[in-house]
Amino acid sequence: MSVKMSSRQVGDVTVVDAAGRITLGEGASVFRDVIRDLAAKGNKKILVNLADVSYIDSSGIGEMVSSFTTVTNHGGQLKLLSLTKRVKDLLQITKLYTVFEVFEDEASAVRSFA
Amino acid sequence: MAERKLLLDSTLDSVEVAETAVLNAAREIGFHEDDLHQLGMAVRESMVNAVVHGNRYNARKKVHLSVVKAPDRLTIVIADEGDGFDVDTVPDPLAEGNLLRQSGRGLLLIRAFVDEFQVLPGQPRGTEVRMVKYLAKAS
């Protein structure tokens, strides 16, 4: 299964729920397209919920970093929510914990954008 | 020791084939779930490097996979038929100025997920990656 992504509004924060695998090919490109589209439409507070993402490879990590840069360049913020242990490990190995703001619960994450 | 060899096309489908073959062998030895995940990821990254960067999806070039089972370890060799590359020229993805680069983290992840990792010039050409994961070190 590739990645499935859907978005919803919580106040002025756009929460993107991702599920599946973000890997080279369809998964990574779907992730990129969804975030770029949101940024292009003026969404400046984007919270990506990775609770149901089972697998991310280096291409997927690359798309997450690229999306972070895209949103930042549009004057917005991209933050991460509910990482699995495996995804946390990946962010630690790649030192991307120093780049992304990561939250365990949605309410705290949403408040952090204020 | 039992060895299985596969000759794979330079396609992304081959990444899945290689990952499945390695994980099947790893399960037979007795690796647990977290180690299977790490092995699968190391194989996936190595295969992507071979298909995308080594053989550049060239239909005339193959990827050579060897999986050797021993009671205490799994040895995986993935060789491409590309132009080869110098591993020392790959920018450090952990350097401050490289953290926001989109690519260049594959080798870092492979190193993190296996116990031994070597990148060698292929014979007669290309690149050969050798990885070993020990059962005794499994969590």
What's the N-to-C terminus distance of chain A? 35 Å
How would you sum up the major sheet of chain A? Answer: 5 strands, mixed
Following the backbone from N to C, one meets helices and strands of chain B in this order, namely EHHEEHEE
Fraction in beta strands of chain B: 25-35%
Q: How would you describe the shape of chain B?
A: globular
The CATH topology of chain B, please?
A: Heat Shock Protein 90
Give, in spatial order, the strands making up the sheet with the most strands of chain A: 1-2-3-4-5
Helix content of chain A: 40-55%
Distance between the termini of chain B: 23 Å
Radius of gyration of chain A: 13 Å
CATH architecture of chain B: 2-Layer Sandwich
Strand-residue proportion of chain A = 25-35%
Based on secondary structure, the structural category of chain A is: alpha/beta
Query: Overall mean pLDDT score of chain B?
Result: 94
**The CATH class of chain B:** Alpha Beta
Major sheet characteristics of chain B: 5 strands, antiparallel
Counting DSSP E segments of at least 2 residues, the number of strands of chain B comes to 5
What structural category do the secondary elements of chain B indicate? Answer: alpha+beta
Proper CATH architecture of chain A: 2-Layer Sandwich
